[in-house]
Amino acid sequence: MKAALVLLLLVAWGHAEHRGKAYVRDKVCQEYKTMGKDNFRTLTIVTNSMKFSNATFEEISHLVREIVSLAETCCTEDADPSCYDDGSSALSAKSCDASSPFPHHADAGACCVHTGLERKLCLAALHHPPREIPRYAEPAGDEVCADFAKDPKGFADRFLYEYASNYGQAPLPVLLGSARSFLSMVSTCCISPAPTVCFLKEKLERKTLSLLTLLSNRVCSRFAAYGKDKIKFSYLTMFAQKIPSASFEEIFPLAEDAAEVFAQCCGSMAEDCMQKKLSEHTAKVCGALSAKDERFAGCCQGKNVMQNYFCISSLKPAKSPQLPELQQPANEHLCGDDGGLHSHRYIFELARRHPSVPDVFLGKLYDASRKVIGECCAAGDSSACLDGKKQQMRGEISAFLAKAGELCGRYAELDFLDFKKRLKETMEQSARGAGPQRLTELAERKAAFASTCCPANAPPLYCDRQVSAEMGQACERGSCLLL
Fold first, then answer.
1. Which residue from 1, 88, 329, 450 lies 20 to 30 Å from 406 (Cα-Cα)?
2. CA atoms of 379 and 385, how far apart (whole Å)
3. CA 122, CA 104: separation in Å to the nearest integer?
4. What pLDDT, in 10s, does the model give residues 27-53?
């Protein structure tokens, strides 16, 4: 699996060229010979599909052919020493051609004004944002076998492209393992005398790997969007809402542990990092919380740890218990060495009291609190600054949480058709004068927003933008600290 690192280096041409052209060529060729052409080609499809997630299959195919051809041509014993460098230069020149068949990128033009190594490095740094909402759906067995029978190699190539571009935030070893497992299942079951039975058996056997891919893509997408500290906040609020009877002291170490797992494993090339560390984390969660909640206990009874984690992450928020009125943290605590801890505790308590408000909404409170603390604690009179900001935020937070809780609480309670009907009725009251078509458009837009951003595993970056657009009315003044 270490070879994948070198393949990425090949795609990125010049990342290691500061150590010499011969170094780059030798490392690439060594791995090409070790892996063999077919495995090298598979990794090229996967890594480029991850990197250019919005590219077409045809664009990825063109790039793969060029990269594999470069290695195949320049890694022979009698190849000219300048072969690799000349070939990579030609590849970068082709990328800058107006009719380039390679994946397009809006910033490529800025790279192409440069020449030589600078151009290569600039082009190498380009990538598409990952898909936050995977669109890939595994086809039925009979459909798979029909496509596989027509063109086994073409079927495998397209599957690798689709799978990697949709689940490109999963660690590369996990993604590759899952993809190879699927292709092995297809090649076995499509020649079986009883394909339906074969697929059922094989899918059951690869369930853990499938779940690991789904879960690791999900958590690593969130980690990439949030960073280590905010992912800690995210898990803190998740546990606070699923098991509000647990204390901050019980949950905070689990949130820290989750953040550490993702920091270690989302970019790791170790084969078993994510499965091993996530299994250990799940055991800690079960050990700490099973006795406090029968739903957690039920999830933790299974023998498959990945299924246990999936079960826990799928639990709906619990009803909020009767809790005393929440007090804002004291100014001296916020600007002390453990100010972040007090901020986390405050939002944890908010989350316990508002179980219908999802993580992507509460993230706005996290961002606002970080900004306010940073600005005010650096001010000359930090206490006066914090007092003023607290007064403004108190009203904003109340209105924001009420609107978010009403929208997402209703979405969780009603089926989708009834939810849209209720939205339209609400719109008729709040948007008087709007015609039927306009009311329908407003209700459809709000329903689409809720269906994407109210679920627990909402795409973080997309919903961050949508929350700002949809919830702006929570702030009645011109200035809004939350949005």
1. 329
2. 7
3. 14
4. 778 888 888 888 889 988 999 999 898
Give residue 58's pLDDT band: very low, low, confident or very high (50, 70, 90).
Answer: very high
Quick: pLDDT tens for 450-481: 999 999 888 888 898 888 887 765 555 444 55
Task: Give the Cα separation of 451 and 472 in Å (integer).
Answer: 19
Phi and psi at 266, nearest 5°, equal -65, -30
Identity of the residue numbered 194: A
Residue environment code for 394-414, b if the CB has 16+ CB neighbours within 10 A, otherwise e = eebbeebbebbbebbbbbbee
Convert the pLDDT of each residue in 197-217 to its tens digit.
999 999 998 888 988 999 999
State both tokens at 363.
């993230």
Which pair of tokens denotes residue 419?
């939810």
Length of the chain: 483
What is d(CA 231, CA 228) in angstroms, rounded to the nearest whole number?
A: 5
**CA–CA separation, 157 and 226 (whole Å):** 32
HSE-CB for 303 with a 13 A CA cutoff: 0
Q: Which residue has the tokens 């292709």?
A: 183
User: Closest by alpha carbon to 370, among 391, 354, 346?
Assistant: 346
Q: Is 305 exposed, middle or buried (0-12, 13-18, 19+ CB in 10 A)?
A: buried
Cβ atoms within 10 A of the Cβ of 118, count? 12
